[in-house]
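Justification of computing resources. Each target in the renewal requires a structure prediction run like the one illustrated here; the chain below, 361 residues long, is used simply to show the kind of job we budget for.
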Amino acid sequence: MRGKPPKLPRGAIQPRPAVLAMAPYSPPTAGRTGKLRLDFNENTVGCSPRVIEALAQALDAASLAVYPEYGDAKQTIASYFGVRPEQFVFTNGTDEAIQVFINTYVDDHQEVLLLKPAYAMYRFYAEVAGARIREVEYAPPGMEFPLDALIEAITPETRAILLANPNNPTGTGVSLLGIERILHRARKCVVLVDEAYFEFSGVTALGEIERVPNLFVSRTFSKVFGMAGMRLGCLFSHEANVRLLHKAQSPYSVNSLAVIAAQAAVADADYVRTYVAEVLAARELLCYGLEKLGIRYIPSSANFVLGSFGARAQEVCKSLGAQAILVRDRSYEAPGCVRITVGTREQTRRLLEALEKIWQR
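Resulting structure tokens:
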């Protein structure tokens, strides 16, 4: 929420107006250990055991004393994603991918087109850059991807478009054909498609980066790979664009342990397939459970479901929290809505049992 800017001490230097005008973003950074974490769309069982083994083998005093090298890791990760090493940059999570994208292409007062509600970091970095933000809303109650409205909103003034597919927090997505329609209309601006939840939806624009010169695609190791704590992502585009992205990025923003972990993670394809299959089954179970309780929800293509709890949204979050089950209240941008991460079927049954008791009070 936006409030009054902090009172600065006498003699302090005022920051840029864009920073003064921003609302702070304050996600919880403590008190989540040991709880059922269904609030931040993380992998709820952890990373592949191969990741831990690789880190244990690599961790020594000498390796930590030198700056990271990315050559071997880029080859491995490029092969996994079906691109060339020259077609992407490692980033410190998707957050840095968004930041580097904005820093490279958006100047003060240029127009950035976003969807609403959406991942908060799109607005965050656009505001830091001093951009002029326009938003296209997901219309309740269905929250379907507003394809026609977004295409209509693109004008010669539009400098950049940032969208997630599927979207967070709605879980709704757009087809590749829909993305191609957006790209056709947006030929005079840059377009970032954030595919943080790709593995759960199966829809990707990554194969278009060579053909469409203004397209950028981001992926993350924070979700399906279970490595949110490592802070690693990738930003893909045409090779010529990637050279420009490198110019706007710190040369060592990704640490050496993160890229070691990533190589081990992509080597364990069975682990990823098994986890995705479990989440998809649990998502179906969660939706069925919500239907039995008479709770409306948005059909999701991601590893979370946005439920409509009306005036009881905060009560539900608080009551679940008292039972060490964390979910995310999104009422501030989607009135009455709570976002629930999909974990395993066992975790989902635990959630539904607790929710049933709360909802029937």
